[in-house]
Amino acid sequence: MKKLTFLAAVLLLTVNAFAQRSSNSKELFIELREPGMYTVYVNDEMAGSAKGRFRFYDVEATAPTITIMENNRQVVKTSLNLESNSRTVVSYDKQAGFRVLKTLPLFSNNQYVLDNWDGSNIQMGRPTDGRPTNGRPSYDGDRPARPAVNYAMSDASFNELLAVVKREDFDANKAKMIKTSLAGNRISTNQLAALVKIMDFDGKKLEVAKLGYDSVIDRQNFFKIYPLFDFSTNKNQLMDYVSKRAANL
């Protein structure tokens, strides 16, 4: 009897944990109406863009701090309340300030239903490429997968990211900034090579190369990363990592 009670308690905790993760999901999309080269921070996550649209997924805070920078100058800093299990789309210009354009639900029947800026439905039981799944959910794990982005950062956006990372004094800070920036962006092998090269220590080069592998759109060119290491042990570790990741992708 005690064993059954314990198992029931574990099951209840698991269900509650899953429900909490789903209900706390938040996304923030920011559109800047005025032209310019901007960098946007949502708490410690950064995104750069020359097109004026910035996407932040898995925002943890209910009222995150938003900071907009233009040419290394702070334009505005404020906080914004976000609804759980929703994508909040906002616009900003210097005259009108921030305006919430829409709030869109992220899930329907536990299915991620947004695949573009304005939101559109993905049919239950079908992945984004349209292949039937025989009624099964079109994602792995307990969180529906977001649609893949199949293009790399523009040269202008990447150069801005590179400049921001270079201003950091320590490899640890550089790696953290790269990690947050790649969360919502894809890059080319050449762009990843540029990020690896600015690291001072071989161990951090390895960390950045691993961080960037899943974000690279042209993995057939990933061999260009291996000669960037000073020590063969780190190069071999990366090759082993890539072999394991490639088998799981």
From TrEMBL:
Instruction: Point out the signal peptide segment.
Output: 1-19
Answer yes or no on keyword Signal.
yes
Q: Where is this region: Disordered?
A: 123-143
What UniProt keywords apply to this chain's record, in alphabetical order? Signal
- InterPro entries xrefs: DUF4476 (IPR028011)
| Residue ranges occupied by any DUF4476 domain in the UniProt entry | 153-241
The entry's protein name is DUF4476 domain-containing protein
Which species does the entry assign this protein to?
Pedobacter frigoris
